[in-house]
Design a protein that fits this description.
Elements: E1 2-5, E2 12-15, E3 19-21, E4 24-26, H1 32-37, E5 47-54, E6 57-64, E7 72-78, E8 80-87, E9 98-104, E10 110-113, E11 117-123, E12 127-134, E13 143-145, E14 163-164, H2 185-188
Parallel strand pairs: 6-14
Antiparallel strand pairs: 1-2, 2-10, 3-4, 5-12, 6-11, 6-13, 7-10, 7-12, 8-9, 8-11
Amino acid sequence: MQKIDTSIPGLFILKPKVFRDARGFFMETFNQKTYDSLGLGSLYFKQDNLSFSQRGTIRGLHFQIPPYAQGKLVTVFQGSVLDVVVDIRKDSPTYGKSESVVLDADDPTFFYIPEGFAHGFQVLSETCLFYYKCTELYAPEADRGISLEDPFLEIPWRDIPRIISDKDTKHPYLADFNSPFIFSRELYLS
């Protein structure tokens, strides 16, 4: 497994080794020893989720507030998505900056999103199976979101017909959200 840093401290991409032959392929999706060797041994996942979505579906931008904040390790098992995160950590040098990556089942890739980031994705393929591991259990009372239409965020959503839940159309702009997340240089820049 290869770890690739992104332009925002704390976010990274993981590229697994994929073994292909005439039957198809095999890859490890999680191995604690491998994570330890990459310096990720402190990640502890408590919940796994799987969603199925149609082309154009946008889910997000979601997060949970403390004490139920979640880190997420996301990937797609079928199809492709534009995966997007926004830094919502107060005092972060990248506060309000978005980072996006295309996740495609034909090129297995995992994207790690730590606490303090809003997360969403847009389905680019006809259908998609989106899988993610979470470091905290889902807590409805802590569930929050940022508007996926916030122009300040400059998210490069694709120009395809959109399917968006009613809930996801009602999130506030980042400027109207008082973030409880604090940037920690020790945690993200070590």
